[in-house]
Design the sequence.
């Protein structure tokens, strides 16, 4: 069993790593049952995926996300958000797999209605031991959504292609939210995962305007809120996301900035101020260091 950790930043990287054929879409990929056998060559290796994934497995297996083992039984769906660590620990019948995995990059939904609501789909970050168990009818509904997306990206591209894909993905997630509510309406959902807590703190601080009032939260601030030491917080984030605490915070800022930059009505100075920077050039310097583009260049390219 290898201890190697792979950080996968794009759909293209994913396909290259596992030997899949060239992706049809640069920001989305559906791995079908015919290709799932490729995972057997990577058992025990760790993967940090910087995009979302939704997986339906129709053979029993076990997967490990962060520090949690998931009982991934036949007919279940499991979700992961960007920056989570996946280790495929054990599978059965790898040469006769049934199911699929949908991967999509955050840029797919950026500046869409789904961009504004995807954080509300809490099942991407639930700290639970059990995946979403589907009835046969529910599985058919979800699989039909997957087939619609698959057919759309395989066809010719026009002005409706992206809206159709994103709206179908949103429909799929709404169905999953409904099915989760049915499954867990009598259970208590715990979200104590440290990575999830850090993401929630950053989101809450931004949404409430604390970035403007108090500046960017420091590692020490976040650790104090969670009730752990800054060093331990850094160790956990590094192990589970491949990023130290400062880089994790900066990644949130850059991701939020990319969305804000799509609004031509907001100046770079105002954007920097909203993100907790006292001086716009500090923001511009960070943005270019992380993306290779100045904020204005990114805006012009998008």
Sequence:
């Amino acid at each position: 069993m290898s201890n190697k950790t792979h950080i996968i930043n794009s759909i293209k990287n994913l396909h290259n790593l596992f030997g899949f054929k060239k992706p049809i879409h640069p920001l989305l990929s559906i791995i079908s049952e015919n290709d799932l056998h490729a995972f057997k060559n990577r058992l025990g290796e760790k993967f940090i995926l910087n995009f979302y994934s939704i997986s339906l497995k129709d053979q029993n297996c076990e997967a490990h996300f962060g520090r949690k083992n998931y009982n991934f039984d036949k007919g279940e769906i499991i979700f992961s958000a960007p920056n989570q660590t996946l280790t495929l620990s054990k599978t059965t019948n790898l040469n006769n797999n049934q199911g699929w995995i949908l991967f999509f990059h955050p840029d797919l939904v950026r500046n869409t209605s789904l961009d504004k609501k995807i954080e509300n789909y809490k099942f991407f970050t639930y700290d639970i031991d059990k995946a979403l168990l589907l009835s046969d009818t529910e599985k058919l509904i979800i699989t039909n959504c997957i087939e619609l997306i698959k057919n759309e990206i395989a066809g010719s591209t026009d002005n409706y292609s992206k809206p159709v894909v994103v709206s179908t993905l949103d429909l799929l997630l709404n169905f999953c939210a409904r099915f989760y509510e049915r499954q867990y309406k009598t259970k208590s959902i715990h979200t104590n995962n440290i990575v999830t807590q850090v993401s929630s703190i950053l989101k809450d601080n931004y949404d409430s305007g604390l970035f403007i009032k108090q500046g960017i939260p420091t590692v020490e601030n976040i650790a104090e809120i969670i009730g752990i030491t800054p060093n331990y917080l850094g160790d956990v984030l590094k192990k589970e996301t491949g990023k130290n605490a400062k880089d994790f915070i900066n990644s949130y800022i850059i991701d939020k900035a990319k969305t804000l930059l799509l609004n031509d009505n907001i100046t770079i100075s105002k954007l920097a101020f909203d993100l907790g920077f006292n001086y716009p050039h500090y923001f511009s310097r960070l943005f270019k260091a992380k993306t290779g583009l100045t904020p204005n260049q990114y805006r012009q390219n998008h």
User: Anything to note?
Assistant: Strands lie at 5-8, 28-32, 46-49, 52-57, 61-65, 68-72, 76-80, 84-91, 99-104, 132-133. The chain is about 45% helix and 15% strand.
